[in-house]
C-alpha cells in the first residue's frame, strides 16, 4: 500500500514537473525570454520523466504485492482449517487517521492448531468500527482460519453483527 502511495505521488509530481517545464519553455520563454539554456529545460524534462517511470514501477510492484496478499487471504478463507482464537491485544492503529481518528485497529490473538501447537498472530488494519461493533476485546473469542501446512498463514474472520443475515 505504501509503495502504491509513493508511486502515485512520484507520477503526480513528475507530471507537474513536466508540465511546468513545458509551460516555461514553450509558453513563457516566448513572451519573456528566460536566460536558461535549452539543456536546463531538457534535463528538467528528463528528470520529470524518470520520476514518472520510477513512480510507475513502484505502483506496479505495490499492486502486485497487494494482489498476492489478497489471493493468499482468499486461499486461506477457502481452504483453511477453522479454529477459535483468544484475543490477547486490541488497540487503535494510529498510522492511518481520518479526521484525526484512527480507522484501523490492531488485533493480536493466540490459537492452537490441529497438531496441538500454540501460535500467536497479529492483524494490522482491522476496521475499527467492525472491532467495536463485534465487541472484540482482550479475552474474547474470535473465529479464524489457518493453513494446515503453515499455521502462521491465517486470517481473522469477523462477521459484522449489523449485516443482514444471508
Task: Walk me through the structure.
47% of the residues lie in helices and 30% in strands. It has a five-stranded antiparallel beta sheet with strand order 3-2-1-4-5. The chain is built from three helices and five strands. Strand 1 and strand 2 (101-112) form a beta hairpin. The model has no long low-confidence stretch (mean pLDDT 86). The chain has helices spanning 2-31, 38-79, 128-133, and strands at 81-98, 101-112, 118-127, 141-146, 154-157. With 166 residues, it is α+β, with helices and mostly antiparallel strands. The radius of gyration is 24 Å and the shape is elongated. The relative contact order is 0.13.
Q: Which helices and strands appear, and what pairs or packs with what?
A:
Blueprint: H1 2-31, H2 38-79, E1 81-98, E2 101-112, E3 118-127, H3 128-133, E4 141-146, E5 154-157
Antiparallel strand pairs: 1-2, 1-4, 2-3, 4-5
Helix pairs in contact: 1-2
- Work out the strand percent: 25-35%
* Biggest sheet details: 5 strands, antiparallel
| Estimated structural class | alpha+beta
Mind telling me the C-alpha Rg?
Answer: 24 Å
Please give the order of strands in the largest beta sheet: 3-2-1-4-5
Helix content: 40-55%
Shape verdict: elongated
Q: Which stretches are low in confidence, meaning pLDDT under 50 for 5 or more residues running?
A: none
What value does the average pLDDT take?
86
Number of strands: 5
SSE order? HHEEEHEE
Question: What is the CA–CA distance across the termini?
Answer: 32 Å
DSSP summary: helix tally: 3
Amino acid at each position: 500500500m505504501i509503495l502504491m502511495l509513493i508511486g502515485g505521488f512520484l507520477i503526480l509530481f513528475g507530471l507537474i514537473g513536466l508540465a511546468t517545464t513545458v509551460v516555461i519553455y514553450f509558453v513563457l520563454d516566448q513572451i519573456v525570454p528566460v536566460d536558461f539554456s535549452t539543456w536546463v529545460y531538457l534535463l528538467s524534462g528528463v528528470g520529470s520523466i524518470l520520476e514518472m517511470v520510477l513512480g510507475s514501477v513502484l505502483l506496479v510492484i505495490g499492486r502486485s504485492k497487494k494482489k498476492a496478499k489478497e489471493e493468499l487471504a482468499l486461499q486461506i478463507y477457502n481452504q483453511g482449517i477453522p479454529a477459535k482464537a483468544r484475543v490477547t491485544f486490541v488497540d487503535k492503529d494510529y498510522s492511518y487517521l481520518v479526521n484525526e481518528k484512527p480507522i484501523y485497529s490492531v488485533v493480536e490473538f493466540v490459537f492452537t492448531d490441529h497438531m496441538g501447537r500454540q501460535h500467536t498472530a497479529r492483524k494490522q488494519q482491522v476496521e475499527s468500527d467492525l472491532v467495536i461493533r463485534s465487541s472484540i476485546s482482550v479475552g474474547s473469542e474470535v473465529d479464524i482460519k489457518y493453513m494446515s501446512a503453515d499455521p502462521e498463514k491465517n486470517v481473522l474472520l469477523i462477521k459484522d453483527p449489523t449485516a443482514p443475515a444471508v
